[in-house]
Amino acid sequence: MIVDEVNKAYVRDLMRTGKRADGRGMLDYRQAVIQQGYVPNAEGSAMVSLGDTKVLAGVKLDLVAPFPDRPDEAVISFNAEFSPIAHPTFEAGPPNEHSIELARVVDRGIRSAEVINLKQLGKTKTEAGKVLGIYVDLYILDQCGNLIDCAALAAMAALRNTQMPKIEGEKLVRLDFTGPLPLTRQVIACSFETIEGKVVLDASYGEEVASDGRFTVSVTDDGKICASQKSGAAGFTKEQVLEFTDIAFEKGIALLEKI
Q1: What's the pLDDT at 98?
Q2: Which domain, by its residues, includes 81?
Q3: Do the strands 75-82 and 131-142 form a parallel or antiparallel pair, or are they unpaired?
Q4: 165 forms bridges with which residues in the sheet?
């Protein structure tokens, strides 16, 4: 897109002078707004905005057959849908590599941090051998940059909002809740982009277009590093990765406090 090429040149020119188009510091997040319980007919939900980037997360629970290699564990699954109204480059149809990557990065952070004790929940197995299935759907409503951090925050907020329905026999009794979904900790993803040798946190869409590479680190609110993801051609030094982790504990945990 011609507009993207213009934005790329503009952002790179600004970066050479150590400035960002919206006036933020290099390691500043945009304003975060979190609205939990956004979808009343879901077991849990949250609408999260980072600046103009908006992601809706919904959680649905069901009784399902467990994975064959984990017969005594509950099941958790993540899916991301890129709505065509969110950005001109998004098209209707099956998931593409970008939506698959987004879902997997969010999944990896939450799963690796063991936010949900799947073995403990697996103890509620029914007589027919079914276990609790937790399905987290991420709907991208506005793509204005840094979908990973926004989606990870939305998923965490939605899980915090999730209520456990009562189990009777082989069925879930919807709207008859027994309490919140038990969580062991919270996790947040923080993504860094490198542009013209400068590193920025919470990149806008224009900054992502101009980026040479991204590094995402997921950390928990009890001091654990649980996942990381690199994309793009640029490389990152050991010192940079350690610095990113320190920043994630400071900036990311501040986001979690908004839930």
Answers
A1: 86
A2: 2-256
A3: parallel
A4: 177
